[in-house]
Amino acid sequence: MRLKNYIVFFIVFGTIFKISAQQNVHKKVKIIDTTSIGKLALYDLTKSIKSVGYSFSRPFHWQKKDLTTLGVIAFSAVSISTIDDEVSALFIKNEPHVPNLFQEVGTRFGSPQVYFISNAALYGIGLFTKNEKLRRTSVLIISSSFTTGLIQSFSKTAIGRARPGGEYKSNNFKFWSNEPKFHSLPSGHTVLSITMAHAIAKQFNNTWSKVGVYTLGSIAPISRLFAGAHWLTDIGVATALSIAVVDGVDKFLFKTKAYDLTKKQKTISWNLTYSGNKIGFIGTF
């Protein structure tokens, strides 16, 4: 495995060990878990499946507030799409000035191979050490990424938006296309990267720790803009999708008391705001 692969793994494992350390500090008394590894794995698998089912059933339970949020996101996406061509041209123009390491880390961290290997390692550590917080974090990531992965895979084909570059513009579509050059919306790298970053960031109470995790998670989306692989709208929609799914699964795990955590970790509170001719969301840690 090449050196750049190890750099990505060290970043992920650095976060993993910090989560584990935080758990040991907060727990004054450690109860010995006598449950077998097999039963724990089966339990986690069951919770993952139920979490995925919960995610896909949520639209049938949406209320007025949820529909309003969806409308705002759709409106925002359409608004941003009006500058997609200009923004893409600007990023591509400046790509030669971006360090190769930044682009390499962004491409690899958002790739399915590194993503699933990293999460498998995270879950493996949590399972064999019977660390409940690590197991729950991994279940949150697995459930959320499976859900967002299915949604983004279907959406890419159904929407058929052209990628930047060549003769195509941001408003070129070829619905139900199997051609990779018409698989721009949403960004798969962004979905995976933000899903993992948001799930991990939820495990911290410290604001700066959250900022650090989100900063690492933003490398993949930004690198895709510089590479000319996606439009800004693709990144925005993928980010909104990832955050919504992770928050939903996280809420389900707490609501059902799937894991025995002493208290719910701080989450980002998203508030819809209006200001003059502007509309958007503000996230509060």
Automatic annotation (TrEMBL):
This protein's species is Thalassobellus suaedae
This protein is called Phosphatase PAP2 family protein
Phosphatidic acid phosphatase type 2/haloperoxidase domain: from which residue to which, for each copy? Answer: 141-246
UniProt cross-references to InterPro entries, sorted A to Z: PAP2/HPO (IPR000326), PAP2/HPO_sf (IPR036938)
